[in-house]
Amino acid sequence: MAPVLLASDLHLAPERPAVVARFRRFLAAEARTASALYLLGDLFEYWIGDDDAADPFHASVLADLGDLAARGVAVGFLPGNRDFLLGGAVAARAGMQVLTEPARLVLAGVPTLLMHGDALCTDDRSYQRYRAVVRSRIVQRLFLALPRPARRALAHGLRRTSDAHTQRKRQAIMDVNLAAVEATFRSHGYPRLIHGHTHRPARHEHLVDGRRCERWVLPDWYESGGFLRCDERGCSAVGLD
């Protein structure tokens, strides 16, 4: 049986040609051997609305994913904190299915939850307040009503502000809250959770109400990159050069 592959936090942008090249090599090699590829958010560095699909860079990435889907590989996309405005119509043109968090599926017989991961970082209260605001429908409507250049400038400004705040925060605050993780396991009854966002790749074990659960954290692709490979033998982390 062909494996299922999962990746997150690629942050693709024209300013990162090495990352883009790595992603295209991945699509041309490992991804073609899979039955499905799940991208768990932050595929793009930013997405300012579905008219951004007309941007030549974004269009080329979406076309590459469309080629993979045309080869019979199911492609699922779960929006992240950078690209949550990417809509279903654009995704469909790229052969992707937009997933709702937490996405529920069975990987090689194991019920599994998929998340981007930012919702689990509840200790970062300022980020959670920001997240609630920018994901409200009225704020999104107001943002999308702006001209595209204004949206792009605003996105760049928010990114700079966020980076400055991140440098001042304690690392522990930006990691997941264990109580939030356990609550997620408990409320859904699933023994496996896979997410990204924190850029701290690892496999964790949790004991929730006497039941052993596993949590996989996917790596970002800034320096090298990697993905999770799941098949009948279980899941394993695979690094990329």
Provide a quick synopsis of the model.
This protein has 241 residues and is α/β, with parallel strands linked by helices. It is 34% helix and 23% strand. The protein has a single domain, classed as Purple Acid Phosphatase, chain A, domain 2, CATH 3.60.21.
Overview of the structural elements:
The chain has 241 residues and is an alpha/beta fold. It has a single domain, classed as Purple Acid Phosphatase, chain A, domain 2 (4-Layer Sandwich). Helices cover 34% and strands 23% of the residues. The protein is built from 7 helices and 11 strands. The chain has helices at 17-28, 56-70, 88-93, 125-134, 137-144, 148-168, 178-188; strands at residues 4-7, 36-39, 74-77, 96-98, 103-107, 110-114, 192-195, 202-208, 211-217, 226-231, 234-239. The strands form 2 sheets. The protein has a 6-stranded mixed sheet. It is globular, with a radius of gyration of 17 Å. The chain starts with a strand and ends with a strand.
Could you give the distance between the termini?
26 Å
SSE string, helices as H and strands as E:
EHEHEHEEEHHHHEEEEE
**DSSP helix count?**
7
Number of strands: 11
In CATH, the architecture is: 4-Layer Sandwich
- Which structural class should the secondary elements be placed in? alpha/beta
Adjacency order of strands in the biggest sheet:
4-3-2-1-10-11
